[in-house]
Amino acid sequence: MPNAAILCVDDEVSILKVLKEQLKRCFGRQYIYEVAQSAAEAWVVIDELEQEEIKILVIVSDWLMPHIRGDEFLAQVHQRFPKIIKVMLTGQADEAAIAYAYQQANLYACIHKPWEEQELQQVIRTALG
Amino acid sequence: MSYLAKFLSIRPSRALASLKEKQPVWAVLVATSTVAIICDSAIYQLNQMAERSNETRLLLTQAKEQMSRLKSLEWESISKGEIDDNLVEELAENQEATEYILGKLEAIDRRDNNDSLDRFFVAYSAYRDQVKEALELVSQGKIKEVLEINAHAIDEVYDDLYSKITRLEDRYVYRNQSTRALADFGTATALILSAITIGILFHQFSQKLRHKKDELEVAFGDLQQAQDQLIQQEKMAALGQLITGVSHEINNPLGAIKASASNTEKALQEALLELPLLHQYLSPEERESFFALITQATNGQPLVDCQGSRDRKRKLVIQLQGYDLDDDRYIADLLTDMGISENLDFLSPLLTSIHHEWAVQLAYNLTCSFVNNQIILHAVDQSSKIVFALKNYARSDASGNRQLVNVNNGLETVLKIYHSQLKNNIHIIRDYQDIPDILGYPDELIQVWTNLIHNAIHAMAGNGTLTISTRHQDHAIEVSIADTGAGIPADIQHKIFDAFFTTKPAGEGSGLGLYISQKILEKHNGRMAIESQPGRTRFSVFLPA
Question: What pTM value is reported for the model?
Answer without folding.
Answer: 0.58
